[in-house]
Design a protein that fits this description.
With 167 residues, the protein is of the alpha+beta class. It has one domain (12-166): Peptide Deformylase, CATH 3.90.45. The chain is 29% helix and 26% strand. It is built from 3 helices and 7 strands. The chain has helices at 26-41, 125-138, 149-166, and strands spanning 46-48, 58-61, 71-82, 85-89, 99-103, 106-112, 118-124. The protein has a 5-stranded antiparallel sheet. Strands 4-5 form a two-stranded antiparallel ribbon. Strand 6 (106-112) and strand 7 form a beta hairpin. It is globular, with a radius of gyration of 15 Å. It binds nickel (II) ion. Residues 91-93, 133, 137 line the site of nickel (II) ion.
């Protein structure tokens, strides 16, 4: 397995719309394994392939915080959305910044796992939010795009400060 480099905002490659996966092969399984390793190493709850510069519709999620619920979504589609919820979100492409984003409270999705088996899932809470955040990434959208311009400017300053410190 190998750790993958996570693109950092405002890398323009984060805006590329990902394409559907067509082949469920060993290369896909290998990529998904590397994405999980990268997710766990970064202590994240979700990672989209777009964030590691692979522009295919693949997401890895684990909301358990102890690596017990790995969930891989390939070619996910949202079938239904219900209600609204506003929670604080972060993103591995935006270290150190968090912001409240409005999402659907519950989503029903259909997806394939990395082995090509189709599943349906109804998700709410952190998992539901995470699924919506990661599907956004596949469409070239980040959580920043859901915020007002003023809020974006404030967070950009915070991000710049964090990066200066990290140098
Ligand atoms: Ni993200």
């Amino acid at each position: 397995m190998a750790l993958l480099n996570i693109l950092q905002f405002p890398d323009p490659r984060l805006k590329i719309v990902a394409e559907s996966v067509k082949a469920f092969d060993a290369a896909l399984v290998n990529l998904v394994n590397n994405m999980f390793e990268t997710l766990y190493e970064a202590h994240g709850v979700g990672l989209a392939a777009s964030q590691v510069n692979v522009h295919q519709r693949i997401i890895v999620i684990d909301v358990s915080h102890n690596q017990k619920q790995p969930l891989c979504l390939v070619n996910p589609e949202i079938l239904q959305k219900h209600g609204t919820v506003t929670e604080e979100e972060g993103c591995l492409s935006f270290p150190s910044v968090y912001a409240k984003v409005q999402r659907a409270k519950e989503v029903e999705i259909i997806y394939f796992d990395q082995f090509g088996k189709q599943h349906e899932l109804t998700a709410k809470g952190l998992l539901g939010i995470c699924i919506q955040h990661e599907i956004d990434h596949l469409n070239g959208i980040t959580f920043f795009d859901h915020l007002s311009q003023l809020k974006q400017q404030l967070l950009q300053k915070k991000l710049d400060k964090y990066r200066k410190r990290a140098l």
